[in-house]
Design brief:
Strand order of the largest sheet: 2-8-7-6-5-3-4
Largest sheet: 7 strands, mixed
Distance between the termini: 50 Å
Helix content: 25-40%
Number of helices: 16
CATH topology of the largest domain: Aspartate Aminotransferase, domain 2
Oligomer: single chain
């Protein structure tokens, strides 16, 4: 869309395949949610009308990606599909040692198993759920140091995904720090991007202290777009150059290709350090497979290679971020408090402000998530005290799958939310009936209070 001079931002694609979506009655929705102990993760896909649970692996692949599947080389070792995948990742990131994995959390597990252990620490702008779980499973401690503005939902600052540099400098004085991970964009606190200036400062601090810096780069393209569109000094930079600059500041990356790879499965682990690469390779063979397939079919590697390039298309990113902004503006117009400014992959509802009568221990985010489903079959996810005990913000994330829903679908969600706003004083809180020892939000059984 370079040179596009209309105020209406249209989808930069045509739709050539469709699938039906289910529409249940209010009674059927109530019965469905009660049958899965009031946890929307338990719902079947055919019980959900608009599914905004996650943008991970839920996007629509392009015609070019579907065509690439047919060229997949399923050789166990040394497939040409891996070579194509490797070349694309190296071109975008500049990282020489590239490993495919079945998804982002597999990369996290390999890093935790090889680089961490009891008594070690990992510093981040904010760890997301699986990152934290893998760090803690190794015996290490996950420490979050988000910038102060990240905890203010109404603050319009452009780069609220930044880390607190003063706190980071102080934390790096501890020799127990084994790794710094910058999450691009900051998924746990509103999907906010990290500025290039903040990344440059983090990189300098880490290199001065000899601590490796890794990027959790699942949404690297969206972060690059926000740098391009919000930082005037990068307005003339091509997106590939901005992305490369971000990766040049790091020692390695973990990347879920189910986000900005626009694929349904897959991930990337990459590093500059040949010794680290050797450790990664050994651990990958144990848990994922031979290093040239890493738990994926050759056709998946082909789809990811195409998707990573498509994700850096300026027309696509302009459309995607504007669509999310439209969603946020429409929700705000009907009285739903949303985190500002909107991120690139989701709208975050401030559930604490929407249902102030529900205290954090009664999970206001769960109340809003379940309310949206009962009202209109819309599935979101709680990002608050259930997902992160002691969370600073009680949020609900409505993640927008890539290239899947149209404006009328978004308008329907806004209408559902408007009806829910009128019922918010009636919404109950929830209690946990049963929970697993880790990542409880996925499978916890709940009950309304």
């Amino acid at each position: 869309m370079e040179g596009w001079d209309y105020t209406t931002i249209i989808e930069p694609f045509r739709i050539k395949a469709v699938e039906p979506i289910p529409i249940l009655s209010a009674r059927e929705r109530h019965r469905a949610l009660a049958s899965v102990a009031w946890n929307v993760f338990g719902l079947r896909a055919d019980q959900v009308t608009i599914d905004l649970l996650t943008d991970s692996g839920t996007g629509a692949m392009s015609a070019a990606q579907w065509a690439a599947l047919m060229d997949g080389d399923e050789s166990y070792a040394g497939s040409r599909s891996f070579r194509r995948f490797e070349a694309v990742v190296q071109r975008i990131t500049g990282l020489p040692h590239v490993f495919p994995v079945h998804q982002g959390r597999a990369a996290e597990r390999i890093v935790a198993a090889t680089e961490l252990g009891p008594g070690r620490k990992v510093i981040s702008n904010t760890h997301f759920d699986t990152t934290r779980a893998n760090v803690e499973a190794s015996g290490a401690t996950a420490v979050d140091l988000p910038c102060e503005r990240a905890s203010a939902p109404d603050d319009p600052a452009a780069f609220k995904g930044d880390i607190d540099l003063g706190a980071l400098e102080e934390a790096l004085a501890d020799p127990a720090v084994a790794l710094v991970v910058m999450t691009l964009t900051n998924n746990a606190l509103g999907g906010h991007p990290v500025s290039m200036g903040n990344l440059e400062a983090v990189s300098e601090l880490c290199r001065d202290r000899g601590v490796p810096l890794f990027l959790d780069a699942a949404r690297f393209a969206e972060n690059a777009w926000f740098i391009h569109s919000r930082d005037p000094s990068y307005a003339a930079w091509p997106l590939h150059a901005i992305a490369r600059r971000m990766f040049d500041l790091a020692d390695g990356c973990m990347l879920s290709a189910k986000k900005d790879g626009i694929a349904n499965i897959g991930g990337v682990l990459a590093t500059r350090d040949p010794d680290q690469a050797s450790r990664f390779r050994t651990e990958l063979i144990i848990g994922e497979g031979f290093p040239t397939y890493g738990g994926l079919a050759g056709r998946d590697l082909e789809a990811i290679a195409v998707g990573l390039e498509e994700a850096l298309d300026p027309a696509y990113l302009r459309y995607r971020t504007r669509s999310v902004a439209y969603f946020a503006e429409a929700l705000a117009s009907v009285g739903v408090p949303v985190v500002q400014p909107p991120g690139g992959h989701a709208v975050y509802i401030d559930a604490g402000a929407l249902v102030p009568q529900i205290p954090s221990h009664a999970f206001p985010g769960v109340a809003v998530v379940n309310g949206l489903y009962l009202e209109g079959g819309v599935r979101g996810v709680e990002v608050g005290s259930l997902m992160f005990p002691g969370a600073a913000l009680e949020l609900v994330r409505l993640a927008v799958p890539r290239r899947v829903y149209t404006q009328s679908h978004v308008d329907y969600v806004v209408e559902v939310a408007a009806r829910l706003v009128r019922r918010c004083p009636e919404l109950p809180g929830y209690r946990v009936v049963q929970e697993p020892p880790a990542l409880r939000h996925f499978t916890a059984e709940l009950a309304p209070l």
